[in-house]
Amino acid sequence: MAVCGALLCANGSARKKKSFGSIHEAVKAGDVEELELMVKSGASINEVDPVHKFTPLQWAAHSGSLECLHWLLWHGADMTDVTPRGWTAAHIAAIRGQDACMQALVMNGANLTAKDDRGCTPSHLATAHGHSYTLQTILRSGVDANPSDKSGWRCVHYAAFHGRLGCLQLLVKWGAHLSEVDQNGNIPAHLAAMEGHLNCFKFLVCQGVSVTHVLGARNDQGETPKDLAQRFYKDNIVQDIMAMQYEQNHPDNQENVAFPAHVSAFKGDLKTLRQLVESGVINVNERDDGGSTPTHKAAGQGHLECLQWLIEMGADHNIKNDAGETAKDVAKRFSQLAAVKLLGGGLDDNSDEELNKDDPSFFDQHGVEGSTDSQGDVNLNASQKREARMRAYQKIEQFEHLLEVAKSNYKQLGGLLEEDQLRQKEENERDRMIQELQAQLEYERIRREKLECQLDDSRAEISHLNQCLEKLKVSDGSVVSGPCP
Questions:
Q1: Whole-model pTM above 0.90?
Q2: Please, are residues 112 and 90 in contact by the beta-carbon 8 Å criterion?
Q3: Which of 102, 105, 123, 382 is such that its CA lies 20 to 30 A from the CA of 135?
Q4: Where are the ANK repeats (predicted)?
Q5: CA-CA distance, 480 to 103, in Å (whole number)?
């Protein structure tokens, strides 16, 4: 640690210190040493800046100054302080996508159910700004995925309205309800249709109770998602709904023997599909009554093995069905993203474009390495990061020493530590098992003695019977009458 201290002194003297006018500027710059000096000089750890009305902790959450945030939490900064808009540090971390700061706040007991002046929790704000990884940090802490703001909007409403597909998928995974209505009777599908977020709308339809239920849902004004899409000129949504309605009016009969290859592709039965095509019974591009080929069926259901085999057999995936859709269009409509990729394309470049959570690039986009900090946040160079790690390690050693001293004092005062209780419990359990085994051993010993006694009695009986048998035998073959003694 002496070496570390020397390095710190050398690096500190080599780097030109900046002059900060306030504790807030030091925090925004991520200078924990200057922060500590200012507090020791009398600056309040919860001082509110006169312009933005942020406390140092809130500025740390805003700028992603993780080391400063830890220092402030260690020294008792108030996590319940709010801005004029009702934002706590957790709200600000959610808005900025500072997942590392959010994790630190969660570990220190931040209230993630606190609401701002609009009734929004941090999960609302993380969703609205599309910070999927920060939202995941919040949901993993155990908070409800369906909180409501003053307008009756849940997190899924925010995700649908702002086109945050990644957040929408995450919320559904954590139990969010897609049939919740706001104070105007809108379900999330209404909002996605109104704003023209096609991929979110497709996902909501696929995850809903049924296509009919989602498309037929009416708000308090009696409007369906299609009505809203038409009123706000969202042609992409209108066309997609028309294609869905066409399929509803021309349902596929899975048991239709006239198109067995289509049935096989729909079910993902590659063995039967291969037999039908290779034997020449059907053509690989055969159309059914709706103009769909087996490729359409396999793509819509996401059966990748069938789809890959059809492509290898020369199936034309550019053929359009009677609804004007190619196989790729059908795969997009049913959110079969792997099938879309296999057919040679990605999702449309819409404003609500977010990668699927199962795609490794999803977390690359949101900074899984530690934070989704924006480009304007604090960026420390290699030397500053090394110094920060050294300071953190010194804190670990300091707290470990203090912990050992406190444990020793507690024991001397007659206290029983948790590890001691656990060890005592293990010893009691071990003693109990030993007693049970000893009792079982004693039982087996007594049982053995009884069996040996029975064996001795049996041997005596056998000996007696043998004597009787000998008396019944005579040397010349004659029989001596009389009972055995």
A1: no
A2: yes
A3: 382
A4: 18-50, 52-84, 85-117, 118-150, 151-183, 184-211, 290-322
A5: 103
Q: Which two tokens stand for residue 320?
A: 């359009």
Query: Which DSSP string do the residues of 160-173 spell out, in sequence order?
Result: HHHT-HHHHHHHHH
**CA 28/CA 63 separation, integer angstroms:** 6
**What are the Cα distances from residue 294, in Å, to 197, 207, 271?**
29, 24, 14
Return the closest-CA partner of residue 145 out of 192, 116, 113, 114. Answer: 113
Q: How far is CA 320 from CA 237, 240, 271, in A?
A: 19, 15, 26
Helices and strands counted in the chain (H then E): 25, 0
Helix, strand, coil share (%) of the chain residues, nearest 5: 60, 0, 40
- Both tokens of 155, joined, read 């997190």
Place of tokens 């009505």: 227
pLDDT in tens, 36-64: 999 999 999 999 999 999 999 999 999 99
Looking up tokens 């656990």, which residue turns up?
422
- Which single residue is written with the structure tokens 């808009």? 85
State phi, psi for 132 to the nearest 5 degrees: -65, -40
The residues, any chain, with a CB within 8 Å of residue 480's CB and separated by 6 or more, are 471, 472, 474
How would you label 228-247 residue by residue, b for 16+ Cβ within 10 Å and e otherwise? bbbeeebebbbebbebbeeb
Count the Cβ atoms, other than its own, within 10 Å of residue 327. Answer: 30
The length of the chain in residues reads 485
**Closest by CA position to 82, among listed 112, 54, 62:** 54
Compute the distance between CA of residue 319 and CA of residue 396 in angstroms, rounded to an integer.
Answer: 65
Instruction: Write down the residue that tokens 């979110």 correspond to.
Output: 200
DSSP state of 336: -
CATH fold of 23-249, please?
Answer: 1.25.40
Quickly list DSSP for 170-230: HHHHTT--TT---TT---HHHHHHHHT-HHHHHHHHHHSS-HHHHHT---TT---HHHHHH
253-343 topology per CATH: 1.25.40
**d(C-alpha 65, C-alpha 89), whole Å:** 12
- The 10s digit of each residue's pLDDT in 428-477 is 899 999 999 999 999 999 999 999 999 988 988 998 888 888 888 755 45
